[in-house]
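ARCHIVE CARD
CATEGORY: sequence design from structure
SOURCE FIELD: tokenized fold
FIELD CONTENT:
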């Protein structure tokens, strides 16, 4: 890991809009090592059985460590 590196953990990730911003920063500096890296994320909507936001996030970014369950 370089001196200018930031590790990201996404809580309540939704469909991943927050992560898209960090990924775009990395994309705009392709000649450099990535500044941001997302290592963990979670999303859970307790009001629904089908987790649409979680499914969208996983389809877009893969499963990394991604958690789709409630902590309660």
């Amino acid at each position: 890991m370089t001196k200018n590196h930031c590790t990201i953990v996404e809580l309540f990730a939704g469909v991943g809009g927050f992560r898209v911003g960090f990924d775009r920063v990395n994309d705009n500096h392709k000649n450099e090592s990535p500044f941001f890296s997302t290592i963990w994320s979670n999303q859970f909507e307790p009001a629904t059985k089908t987790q649409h936001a979680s499914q969208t996030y996983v389809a877009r970014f893969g499963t990394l460590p991604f958690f789709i369950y409630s902590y309660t």
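CARD ANNOTATION: The chain has one domain: 6-67. The longest strand covers residues 36-42.
SHELF: design records, drawer C
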